[in-house]
Amino acid sequence: MENINSVSRSSVVLEVGNRGIVVCEIARHLSPITVNSVLKHLPIQNIVHKIADNAVYIGTGLLLGSEKQRTFFSRGDIGFMTSNSSLSFFIKDSIGIPMNPIGKVKSGLELLETIRPGETMTLKKPELIS
Question: How far is CA 11 from CA 74, 93, 114, 127, in A?
Fold first, then answer.
């Protein structure tokens, strides 16, 4: 896995139970305060919930305000929902709840399509490979 870490972008992985990983890229320019807070609090682990068939999300416990919010998210986008302090991973194009955009799924999105509510997901920094 390519580990892209710069001032503006960071690679993170989302572990889906014991079933595999989803590679994500978090981009500071999308919502700088939100992204910095999420990265500072990694790893974030919680039980998966679904928003219809459009997205899966996990609670973070982070109390953050609105930042560059939008209501349209494309397949693969990642958003932070301020109303319930959760990270949402979109598996379909969606219009709905305002969220702070924070990044994009780079690979493994198919795994999120098969996830079931009640499974556990962990967002964390990628393991260093030597």
Answer: 19, 23, 23, 11
Question: Tokens standing for 45?
Answer: 């682990």
List of E strands, the chain: 9-16, 20-27, 44-47, 49-51, 55-59, 70-73, 77-81, 86-90, 94-107, 120-124
Residue 6 CB partners (closer than 8 Å, separation 6+) = none
Q: Which CATH architecture has domain 9-124?
A: Beta Barrel (2.40)
- Binned at pLDDT 50, 70 and 90, residue 8 comes out as confident
Quote the pTM value. Answer: 0.91
Domain ranges of the chain: 9-124
The answer on pLDDT for 13 being more than 50 is: yes
Q: How far apart are CA 1 and CA 12, in angstroms?
A: 11
- Supply 75's token pair: 């397949």
Whether cis (ω within 30° of 0) applies to the bond prior to 117 is: no
